[in-house]
């Protein structure tokens, strides 16, 4: 067992060569994990192609990186935008193909109790986190096959444990399933598919102000009957729980996530899954292997109780 462990450590430490010849495309680079990853890959010598949603995000990234990093405006909810970006990328990479595609773009809101959500609320999250990942991957796959490269999909610990309502957990479970299916379908082409499962980190996705605004919006669109079933104090109690959770577990060290992404792109033998963050390793991952009744009881102790629950 000891020999196996040290053998695994050695194998895990082996890296590919010639970073400067390899192109990596990253989505969601305006801020957070994507922004930091692009800066790290640029310093390492990769030819980084960064997809940003806004002009400001693209300008901020270009000011913080070297001359070899290039940005492009990309909306992963638009197939037209994705196709246009793929054609631009094809010209950039030429015959080398695309070594890495990092599907990092995502959104968490709207997020709230399932009954509070409309179908449109679900769609707004799913079309970024789920459909966007699938559309980017299938569109860019010919370029990745040419380089026998890597696909790195950012899921979440909430893709293992559905801890709250809304489209976020659903979309991240879908990313997990899509990645597993894709890995098994294309492994004979020499392509690795890696899944990043971050815990809770301080990014725009976990910002409290937008979360609270969305919870108020969802509450205000409920019928009087549904509001009455929860009680007048339920919204404020729910918000207090969210504040407690975010303040208690959110990690400010984003490099714990980007280091996993970097390993997936540079390792000779990348891992299938990466758990990023102490809460991911010691809370969410173990919890995902527990019986459903244990998870249900744990969440029931944390969340407020509706006034007319039975």
From TrEMBL:
The keyword Oxidoreductase applies. Keywords: Oxidoreductase. Belongs to the short-chain dehydrogenases/reductases (SDR) family. This is Retinol dehydrogenase 5 (11-cis/9-cis). It comes from Oryzias latipes (Japanese rice fish). PROSITE patterns: ADH_SHORT. One of its GO terms (molecular function) is all-trans-retinol dehydrogenase (NAD+) activity. GO terms for biological process: retinoid metabolic process; steroid metabolic process. It comes from the Eukaryota. SUPFAM superfamilies: NAD(P)-binding Rossmann-fold domains (SSF51735). InterPro entries: NAD(P)-bd_dom_sf (IPR036291), Sc_DH/Rdtase_CS (IPR020904), SDR_fam (IPR002347).
